[in-house]
Every structure is written in structure tokens, then in C-alpha cells.
Amino acid sequence: MSRNKTSRSAATRAVKAVRDTSNRRQRIGAMLQENGSVQVLTLASTFGVSTQTIRKDLHYLEKRGVGTRSYGGAISSQVVGVATETAVDAKRALHSQE
User: What is the pLDDT of residues 14-71, one digit of tens each?
Assistant: First the structure.
């Protein structure tokens, strides 16, 4: 019976770890949207995880279009998108006069 109990606790820990990862990534995404950017060291301290874990989370969020990785952190895709669109519009206006 103790073997079965051990298997259940390992499974419970695995489920909790997944839930914690998902929750942490959702919170990081929300922080990105609210603040416009986040820093790896600050996030690692806030969530009590390693900087490597945070880098993996930011990579995951970047793949989903939430933000763009930058040196030491990430920038919200909304912030990056705004600057990109302004430059494109400015170039169109400049070239349309030629």
C-alpha cells in the first residue's frame, strides 16, 4: 500500500507543478500587458524560481505572441507592435509623395 501511496503523491506533485507553471505564465503575461515590459531577475525573485525557468516561460510566451524577448527580459507585443506600425505608416507617407 505504501508503494501506491508514493505513486499518488508523485502524480499529485506533477499535476501541481504543471498548474504552477500555467499560473505563473498567465501572471507573467498579465504583467507584460500591464507594465509593457518585465525583467528576468525581478520575475525570478517574485515567483521564487530560477532565471532559467523564467527564460523558458518568456520563450513560451513569445511563441504565442504575448511578448518579444529582449536582453534581460521581455517587451509586450502591444508595445513592440505600436512602434512598428508607426514607422511603417511614416514610410508610406514619405514614399507616397514621390
Answer: 445 546 899 999 999 999 999 999 999 999 999 999 999 999 999 999 999 999 999 9
Interacting residues of 44 by C-beta distance below 8 A, sequence separation 6+: 50, 51, 53, 54
Q: How many CB atoms lie within 10 A of CB 57?
A: 23
Report yes or no: 40 and 55 within 8 Å, Cβ to Cβ: yes
- Residues 6 or more apart whose Cβ sits within 8 Å of residue 72: 39, 40, 41
**The length of the chain, given as a count of residues:** 98
- What are the residue ranges of helices labelled H in the chain? 2-35, 40-47, 51-63, 77-96
d(CA 77, CA 98): 32
pTM of the full predicted structure?
A: 0.64
